[in-house]
Amino acid sequence: MPSKHIIHTVAPEWYREYEVPKEELLKNCYLNSLKLAEEYNLKTIAFPCIGMGVYSCPKDIGTRIALKTVANYIESSTIEKVFFVCFEAELYDYYTEFMKEML
């Protein structure tokens, strides 16, 4: 995907222990990326399924965090479009299922 900017974030490893709940750390990955996008006046942002690969975040938990965090944030932001990029059919199914629940 051609892009002018890349915002890098690192998800928590689900198999490790942290002082902060992993769900909160994952939520912050999305929030910090969205805030940075706004700082650069970006109107569109795309997210992969952060943490749901080698870092072993459960797909249902990761999907819900991604959708809820982004939906809440963009209500009062200047970001116009958000894409969620799913590299597996199973992840796509989670995203479409949870989007339906949110509507």
* Helix percent band: 40-55%
Tell me the structural class.
Answer: mainly alpha
Strand order of the largest sheet: 1-2
Supply the number of helical segments.
Answer: 3
- The CA-CA distance between the termini, in Å, is 28 Å
* Beta content: 5-15%
Total number of β-strand segments? Answer: 2
Order of helices and strands: HEHEH
Characterize the main sheet: 2 strands, parallel
The parts where pLDDT drops under 50 for at least 5 residues are none
- Nearest-integer average pLDDT: 95
Radius of gyration: 13 Å
Shape: globular
Could you explain how this protein is built, in words?
By secondary structure, this protein is mainly alpha-helical. 47% of the residues lie in helices and 10% in strands. A two-stranded parallel sheet has the order 1-2. β1 (44-48), α2 and β2 form a beta-alpha-beta unit.
How are the elements arranged and paired?
Blueprint: H1 22-39, E1 44-48, H2 59-74, E2 81-85, H3 89-102
Parallel strand pairs: 1-2
